[in-house]
Amino acid sequence: MTQKLIFTNLVGEALDTLVADLGNPQVFVLADSNTAECVMPALVEQSKAAAGARKIVIKAGEIHKDLDNVQAVWNALHEAGATRGAVIINVGGGVVTDLGGFAAATFKRGMRVINVPTTLLGAVDASVGGKTGINFNGYKNEIGTFTEPEASIISTGFFVTLPQQQLLSGYAEMLKHALLENRDELSKLLNYSVVYPMFNPDTLLPLIESTVHTKARIVDADFRETGIRKALNLGHTAGHAFESLAMKRQSPIAHGFAVAQGLVISLVLSHLKLGFPSDVLHTFAAYVRTNYNAFSFTCDDYPELLAYMAADKKNTQPGAVAFTLLADVGDVRVDQQLTDDEIRSALDIYRDLMGI
Amino acid sequence: MTQKLIFTNLVGEALDTLVADLGNPQVFVLADSNTAECVMPALVEQSKAAAGARKIVIKAGEIHKDLDNVQAVWNALHEAGATRGAVIINVGGGVVTDLGGFAAATFKRGMRVINVPTTLLGAVDASVGGKTGINFNGYKNEIGTFTEPEASIISTGFFVTLPQQQLLSGYAEMLKHALLENRDELSKLLNYSVVYPMFNPDTLLPLIESTVHTKARIVDADFRETGIRKALNLGHTAGHAFESLAMKRQSPIAHGFAVAQGLVISLVLSHLKLGFPSDVLHTFAAYVRTNYNAFSFTCDDYPELLAYMAADKKNTQPGAVAFTLLADVGDVRVDQQLTDDEIRSALDIYRDLMGI
């Protein structure tokens, strides 16, 4: 990885230092209409670079993560005479950092980027890995590049105004990273809670730092996602299936909530197939049940859940569902092919563990 | 450079070997409507991979090197269920390889690409360097990436049907590369002519091979064009000014014809500023005069030519015009700041040398 990761709640100071290190180039700040209103005034007060920058504001929401909005950014850059040496600071959640990253990666064949994530999911997930992208014709991240920013400034001060559900959703990705790391990391996270009264920005920041380094280590080993990067798919095959089922029931659930349930399924399968330790499985399932509740379904839903898993875009062999599993905490096995019967057993055990 | 450069007139055979080496993935062929008609039938006959590929045909011409055409390619890839592992073969001139390269670099964050240039300019210039791009809002290559193809297959068989003017235009870039290399290379090119009766595909191919390697060497040293890659700008500052003046006179000249004249200007300036050898300058100017004629202008045109040079996008210091010059053949000096008086003198000497 060549990008700098800076963990601090003195965001303005960090930003000004970074911009100075880049030779004080022309600076742009990209935000969506929500962040422009709620976050930018404070940032402008803390940072000379942000105060002096030209602002580009795009429409908020996943639905606007599209080519129209990218063209709006390209036009704004062009009209301001942006050169290849300019830097764009993306301030926002995943939509802004993904879209802003794509616009910057392609404007004059690549401007420089600093990301300032303002959501927990953005901080732990989108900040590392160099994935930029937009949706195209209704398909998520169909168009994009692998382009790392110069730096990401990861902070927790913005999170105090986030809804509890959003914090929990981001925390599920942290749990995933800890499962990929080791038992110490996992214990730290399972002994913490990202909701009040335990949550505060200063205690959360070091936990984010460890899990981001786990992700950075995995991404470094496989930038273009041909092998071990699939580790980061842990919990997502079943998670996406739960998300799709919830969507069909017209009561959608947040991505992280689905991932938390998916992680339980993946640990059950890991136990069945690879002897993943039963005590860790039980502790983990109890944590998810307490903090995220269970996702409710019956055996009548099994065929549909299996169909969603079979359609997962990460599958490589027709007719088999490929999972990322663990032989132990931190001991990752990608491309584990599972039969429908094995998955049915795991769904049975999940319902048992979660009391549904 | 990681891309393979294959110099051969057995294009079909080379293509099939490459596709097999890539693990026989899903194959797409991209061509514009002209090439689809004139080149594809022969290619399909010679290559199993091309014959079995899905064809994507875009509108021909620089005016269609735009986002609409990129979206057409993305849609075609999407509808055919293209994965990140698929390969797209761009068959055509610079418009097709630039646009197809950009579409591929951004579809699912990057498919694999094989370029098959069908013009001399494409073979010597666009095939190496990893520049992909499209025009945006009337600005050339405003949007794009630096992304290398897996391989380029460089051949000369397609050129037998090209107009003589196009061949000469491409040959000007070869002359530039030879000036950046050494006297031997330059002699070889000055003793050759890319028009009949001397031109034939088999004698041209090895000459292309040397000059492409010169470009590859320079690009390798500076992929993102921050320093020595500016060597490739030799002749282009004055060349672009001639192009602009010709456009304004409503009698446009081909890019390579303008570059040939620009190379003479840059050698005159190199002689004045850096003692570039006078005998080489005279031999080179005579070759350009014989093969490309002179570009006609008077001292009344000087202010306009100077203004065009000052507006060149490669300038970094306001108020000064930066040229790439040579102290000798192969001895490159980038970022040479020149005064208006020096440029006026060079324009005087050019007119003298070229007999206008």
Q: What distinguishing features does this structure have?
A:
10 strands, homodimer, two-stranded antiparallel sheet, 17% strand
Question: How would you describe the overall organization of this protein?
Answer:
- The structure is a homodimer of 356-residue chains.
- Chain A is of the alpha/beta class.
- In chain A, 51% of the residues lie in helices and 17% in strands.
- Chain A has helices at residues 11-21, 33-38, 40-46, 48-52, 67-79, 94-106, 120-126, 164-181, 183-190, 201-221, 236-248, 255-274, 278-292, 302-310, 340-354; strands spanning 4-7, 27-32, 54-58, 87-92, 112-117, 131-136, 139-146, 151-154, 321-328, 331-338.
- In chain A, the strands form 3 sheets. Chain A has a 6-stranded parallel β-sheet, with helices on both faces. In chain A, strands 6-7 form a two-stranded antiparallel sheet. In chain A, strands 9-10 form a two-stranded antiparallel sheet.
- In chain A, a hairpin with a 2-residue loop joins strand 9 (321-328) and strand 10.
- In chain A, helix 7 (120-126) runs parallel beside helix 8 (164-181), helix 8 runs antiparallel to helix 9 (183-190) and helix 12 packs across helix 15.
- Chain A is globular.
- Chain A binds chain B through residues 67, 71, 74-75, 78, 102, 105-110, 131-133, 136-137, 139, 141-146, 224, and chain B through 67, 71, 74-75, 78, 102, 105-110, 131-133, 136-137, 139, 141-146, 224.
